[in-house]
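Researcher: Good morning. I'm working through a list of sequences from a screen, and I'd like to move beyond sequence-only analysis. For each chain I'm collecting a predicted structure so we can compare shapes side by side. This is the next one on the list. No need for commentary yet; just the structure.
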Amino acid sequence: MGARGRDPRNLAMVSAESSQRGGSNSAFAAALDDAGGVSAPRERLAGLRAALLDELLAGAGELDLPRSGYARPVAVALAVVPDRGAERASAPGGPSRGSPSAPGGPSRGSLRAVAPVDQALRADAGAVGERAWLLVAALVGAMVQAAAVSAHLPPDGFARSRDAGALALALALRAGALGDWLVLALPVAGADSGDAAELAVLAFEDEAAGIDRLRARAYAVPRGVLDGTVDLRAPIGEDHPLRAAEAVALLGGRPADEASVAAHEDEVLAMLGARAEAARPHEEQDPSLRAARRILQRLAGMGKWGGYHTDFAHLARGFAGNERALAVEIGERLLDAGLLVAKPSVGQRHVFLNPRRAGDIHALIERGVIPAGLELPAA
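Model: Good morning. Structure tokens for this chain:
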């Protein structure tokens, strides 16, 4: 995002622009417009939900193509859903004025988004392809920006702020399902207005703009269109890439941009350092085994599974002197053993952790257990 966009306070100044963007060719876009957008009456919600589900199915098909969304942009949809207390407050006998959920008080809710991506991503980082993952990463970035505006936080990222509200919202992303599709949720303030959904729509346009061979569009929808979302919970696994994407966004980075992710790597690892503290591979005495554990731990800490990959040359980051050559050799052996997978379609050779070998990878990181097929150089 440009200089104006990266300051989340500026999103509020230009949110009206989102309603002026060009349309798409989808029946869903036409139905949403005809129904009145986020102000659509209750009797139109079932029809809009059916149209959205059709649109998500079409979007999933687009993501399997060599070029996605060129004839029909891949759609994601966002809505602000008030918490149950806020919904009760509007009914007779609800909380008194001035309580957190009372009318006129500081209402709370969640910004929710649905994407045409398999909901299995919540637990399995290898459940989707690279382009689908980058679509989700861009969506996470847009949602974090919108949540920042909602909470009136500083523009330099939640994690760099010492504001109590910022720290309370850090790493709050939840994932659930709407039928077969992935739903993401973040807590927001000001749930009555739904402004966060419009702000996220605007932010998403910029977050997704740099994804190769993808055209995508976000829509703000009435909250009832996302009724039926189930099982919202934290992504499964401390090293899930959704956690890394959220951390990058909290630090002011762009989760769908490889260079931005790499620039924030050390800070992200510090934020997600629980596993590193438990495993302590640097205490390993065998230099080859220590290098293998360190490389895998760093990749796992950044969520480099499946769609999130890194330049092979980066495997030697953090190693000094002769250890750098050893790290490169270890990287080759991790590839030969199938613990890492190469991605040859980008300019440099990129690699990522093999989700199908997650058990072996975690056993090696945490306990130094060398899996079958991995031969390390003699100490």
